[in-house]
Design brief:
Helix 1 crosses helix 3. The chain has helices spanning 3-19, 22-25, 56-82, and strands spanning 26-29, 32-35, 42-44, 50-52. The mean pLDDT is 88. The protein has one domain (3-82). It is an alpha+beta fold. It has a 4-stranded antiparallel β-sheet. The longest helix has 27 residues, at 56-82. The two termini are 24 Å apart. Strand 2 and strand 3 form a beta hairpin. 58% of the residues lie in helices and 17% in strands.
Length: 83
């Protein structure tokens, strides 16, 4: 499996994991609970209603993908310098 697929799966897992982490990914605002970090992904309205923020999940996946890709490139660059 290529490193880009692995990074994509990792960013997907991290996005879902952080969205439901109480301290990082959950925000309360006027009785509405928002899930997601850095952008909101889902909203719970308190009466049993759920909503999805349109581009939040895509932004979060792209955000973590870029971070992990940059970290991968940094590690590979340092690994080449040491060898």
């Amino acid at each position: 499996m290529s490193h880009k697929k692995i990074i994509f799966i990792l960013s997907l897992v991290v996005t879902i994991g952080i969205a439901f982490t109480p301290v990082i990914g959950i925000t309360h605002d006027n009785g509405v609970i928002y899930y997601g970090f850095p952008a909101y992904m889902f909203a719970y309205y308190g009466n049993g209603g759920w909503g999805s923020v349109s581009l939040g999940p895509l932004f979060n996946i792209a955000f973590f993908y870029v971070i992990f890709l940059l970290l991968y490139k940094l590690v590979m660059k340092k690994r080449k310098v040491k060898v």
